[in-house]
Amino acid sequence: METAVNVPYLTASSEASSDGDQRHPLSDNWARICGRLQTEVGEVEYRTWLRQMTLGPVDHDEITLYLPTRFLRDWVRSQYGDRLGTMWNGEIAEIRRVELMLAPDARANPPMPVAPAMSPVLGAPVAPVAAMRAVAAAAPAVAEPRGDLAAPLDPRFSFEAFVVGKPNEFAYACARRVAERPSSPGFNPLFLYGGVGLGKTHLMHAIGLELTRPARPQGAVSVAYMSAEKFMYRFIAAIRSQSTMEFKEQLRSVDVLMIDDLQFLIGKDNTQEEFFHTFNALVDAGKQIVVSADKSPSDLSGLEDRLRTRLGCGMVADLHATTFELRISILEAKALASGVAVPPKVLEFLAHKITTNVRELEGALNRMIAHANLFGRSVTLDATQEVLHDILKAHDRRVTIEEIQRKVSEHWNIRLTDMSSARRARAVARPRQVAMYLAKQLTSRSLPEIGRKFGNRDHTTVMHAVSRVTELMERDTAFAEDVELLRRMLES
Ligand SMILES: Nc1ncnc2c1ncn2[C@@H]1O[C@H](COP(=O)(O)OP(=O)(O)OP(=O)(O)O)[C@@H](O)[C@H]1O
């Protein structure tokens, strides 16, 4: 691959270079990526979402791309973030991250609100641009980072915006406590852990936002938040530029240090060592540390023992997998904040289908909201299934018809073979109908495909089973609860 620039230690910028060359050093790479994007997503989608993206600076392994509004930035981040990362990495192997940011001039001149912040209820069409501006104008300004040391805190990730339920109430309470009284004995360090997309970063930002609030009664304190990956690259850069002392001093001058995704430091011995010393220096000086990882300190094998021990010394709080109830509450809160009317049926459908992580759940809802705002169409179950076809298909694959048949037979205590037998006794026929109903609800199989799995039955038999079960569920609450329970068991 040909490139004239020396990545990763290049400091490029979209501004003119000193020799008067107005071109960004990576503009050829960018042109190629744009061309590919256009082919991949199609002209209309490209023009709607991606055309306004511009190149920003390159810093080590990260390239910044600018977008003119917050709405566009958030949308592109959620829908194309990963793809852009892969494309840049394919173009220049050293680039591993793509940061999508609001263009500097857009920050200085926020768009004028041309529609109420809360968009009108669906049915009253919203002009696309007006809708985008309304969302953009409703979003608060990005909190500025501490010098160039840390990453900015995202104002959307506040405590108020965090929905609390059984799986996360302990972690939430610990985070609140640290935000109220940092460096309290027993809460330092605060170690948050849990699976992907369950709210660790959100809680860390919430702590940071609370502590840096100018109106905080005890006065704002200095907070540095960064990913462990960034910590490592900053450290390496400091070694290269012989400014490690400055780096250490900067780190040790903060009141609260938050490091996200610590598992990244596994196998990076020198960086771990540096982090260990920083950690000790800060805790000894009575400063607060907050760390997140995908596993508990004791399960983070690959981290030095002494570091694991210290990490487990304060408060360790686990974010558990979400429950159906929590997913519904999160969706309700996000739908309400968007101002778009999303029927409860759609929320339930999404909460049933997307069970793994909140980021995906939120992404799916955002896509529906954007669709409604852009095209002025109501959010309906049919529209959801159509627009989210790709996401839903990926989730469908998790439940197979065989699993459904097994669970249903166990539940009603019938033989598995009766799922495909010709027996018509109600004790057998009803569970079989329920299994067909669940196969339709939980998989993307067509009616004829489902019929074939049930002893080569016709698609009309499946259709009849679906309507019969739906009807019975409306009439008989106990039966409805049984079916609901089975569905949840199959999805968990
Ligand atoms: N309880 C919640 N209430 C509201 N939003 C939530 C909740 N949990 C997660 N989210 C949202 O889900 C998205 C993913 O959350 P977050 O980035 O904090 O996850 P994470 O645990 O840090 O994931 P990762 O392991 O990928 O770093 C964010 O947009 C966040 O706001």
UniProtKB/TrEMBL annotation:
Name the predominant localization: cytoplasm
Q: What is known of its domains?
A: Domain I is involved in oligomerization and binding regulators, domain II is flexibile and of varying length in different bacteria, domain III forms the AAA+ region, while domain IV binds dsDNA.
- Give the Chromosomal replication initiator DnaA C-terminal domain ranges: 400-469
Q: Extract one GO molecular function annotation from the record.
A: ATP binding
Recorded protein name is: Chromosomal replication initiator protein DnaA
| Species, as recorded | Lichenicola cladoniae
Under the subunit heading, UniProt states: Oligomerizes as a right-handed, spiral filament on DNA at oriC.
Family that this chain belongs to: Belongs to the DnaA family.
